[in-house]
Amino acid sequence: MTTLTATRAVVRNRLALVALAVLAVMVLAAALAPLLAPYDPNAQDLLSRLRPPAWTSNGDSAHLLGTDQLGRDLLSRLIYGSRISLLVGASAALLAGVIGATIGLVAGYLGGWFDRTLMRLADIQLAFPSILLALAIVGFLGSGLWYVILVLGFTGWVSYARVVRAEVLSLRTREFVTEARAIGVREVTIMRRHLLPNVLAPLATIGTLHVASAIVAEASLSYLGLGVPKSTVTWGAMLADGQLYLGTSWWIAVFPGVALMLTALAVNVTGDVLRDVADPKAYRR
């Protein structure tokens, strides 16, 4: 599929355009957080605690989305929280992609006992729910932004490895691979130059979907107090703070929950679009 055809296919998909617009807003908010946030996200003002959103009857125009139990501005916290969510999601997906692609390439190309050993390791990891495995590792290592990224990266490589291995198994008997092997090209070079470029499309699709799952996993860990330190603003921690005030101050938990849902949904829709675009049969005329 040509780039022009793929672009037209995306443009015709209104849901994809909405998802891309949501992602663009989130990325811009994260990148320009110091400029866009009206307040310091951790600045406390107890005299302004539990102020409702500005458009409600008792709202304060100085705080568009209201304040939390410590008087912190919710809009500022939402903007800064997007930084952590997007950073963790993208970094974890990148780390898992590198590990999984490497294992899938080597296992699929070499085959034999090496392939069987790596796939059995993948089966063992799949036997454990990923969020429980992440909870156990983070609980052992301790909280911290980079610990969370490492844990989510190392627990998410299996899907990449399986897809890449399946692609490599179908590619390693193709003419361009057998000819490269016949003229003495090193195996590492064959995997890097001839096989890896042919698996980038499915890797991009899986990576996009993994970003959404990593964002939700990070929010879950932060909600349980096992993610990044409490001094760092995250959507999961905001949800945990607001759960006790759902009956009286619903906005504390609702707004970060909506932001988390919209971001994960937008990333998943974008991943579906990438999958359709990468499949030439989807838009064959």
Characterize the structure shown:
The chain has helices at 3-12, 14-31, 33-36, 74-110, 112-126, 130-141, 145-154, 157-171, 175-182, 187-195, 200-223, 235-242, 251-278. With 285 residues, it is mostly helical. It has a single domain, classed as MetI-like (MetI-like fold, Orthogonal Bundle), CATH 1.10.3720. Helix 4 packs parallel to helix 13 (251-278) and helix 9 runs antiparallel to helix 10 (187-195). The longest helix has 37 residues, at 74-110. It is elongated, with a radius of gyration of 22 Å. The termini are close together.
Low-confidence stretches: none
Computed CA radius of gyration, to the nearest angstrom: 22 Å
> What's the N-to-C terminus distance?
11 Å
In the CATH hierarchy, the third-tier topology is known as MetI-like fold
CATH architecture title = Orthogonal Bundle
Count of helical segments? 13
Domains (count): 1
The proportion of residues forming helix, as a percent range, comes to 55-70%
Which structural category do the helix and sheet elements fall into? Answer: mainly alpha
- Overall mean pLDDT stands at 85
**Total DSSP E strands:** 0
CATH superfamily: MetI-like
Question: Quick one: overall form?
Answer: elongated
Q: Approximately how much beta-strand content do the residues carry?
A: under 5%
> Largest beta sheet, briefly?
none
